[in-house]
Prior knowledge:
Number of strands: 18
CATH class of the largest domain: Alpha Beta
Number of helices: 10
Amino acid sequence: MKITAAVLHEPRGAFKVEDVELDAPRPHEVLVKIVATGICHTDLAVRDQHLPLGLPAVLGHEGSGIVEAVGSSVTRVKPGDHVVLTPASCGECDFCVSGHPSYCEKFSVLNMQGHREDGSCAHHQHGQDLQGLFLYQSSFGSYAIATERNTIKVPTDIPLEILGPLGCGLQTGAGSVLNVLRPQAGESIAVYGTGPVGLAGIMAAKVAGCSVIVAVDINDQRLELARELGATHTVNSRNQSSADYIREHIMPAGLHYTFSTVGRNEVVAEAFKAMRYMGRCVEVGVGTSANLEIPHSLFRMGKSITYAIEGDSVPEVFIPRLIQLYRKGRFPFDKLIKFYDLDQINQAVEDSEKGVTLKAILRMPH
């Protein structure tokens, strides 16, 4: 079928909205009419080839939409269902069956190759294959092919166009706090970077009952929003050490947890310095350097770091949970959103990179 999609033709290039041919769904696949899709930093990491993917390609991985058709073996969803798309997983490996599908043994094969496991492409243009099925969806298009496992049914009474980011960025931020760090009520945390992922982490820390929630960034407007969303303290780290400030003015013994969304060595080092003995740090940023380097001395006294993918969540459980928190006013992620039409994708990218927009969502031209 013919669809409209934003195609990336070259590294660091602009997206071009063009006609593309999309395959019909195979037995295990689902065809989704995309209503809207978020723009995530991971899409831009592929654009800049920090995460390698063949080009030209159709990206996008925070899609929300309506099921249009299903393959013959699909039972979880049916045409007409409202859904959010999230990364694919095999459902059979040890990690999937033990409740950790983000660490599926086939994660890279299913999500990061640009084609199906058998090597076939779902997107085509001018008789040539396009790389697609990015995070097994490529939702920068009016329709997307997904699998049954990464198509998450959602309620019909919540505006579908706002829900896409729950499939990746917001799930990553909230899950890293609630599923990975799991703070107890009354404990303390600092969140480094107040983009959408970090702000989701701040909202999650408030849900968890953290008594001290420190937001660290170099953007005063974002820090102001962080306070509105649950931060008890803010630190502008442009001209001062956040760790020194935290220990001098907030928690002299250091924090229980830190959450870094930035992927920079110097930021992780600050996060470690801000923690108390046996403090735990979780990192989710896509770094631009090959190595993560932290002074050995900072690991003393039981401090640790882990990397989290998609908040280590089970999407069909966690996404509905976030929606319920949204209903109750406890996860007001809609305050981060600004809408753009698909043909405004390059403006949306520019605004996101400049910090003008926190979470850009592209509406499809249906």
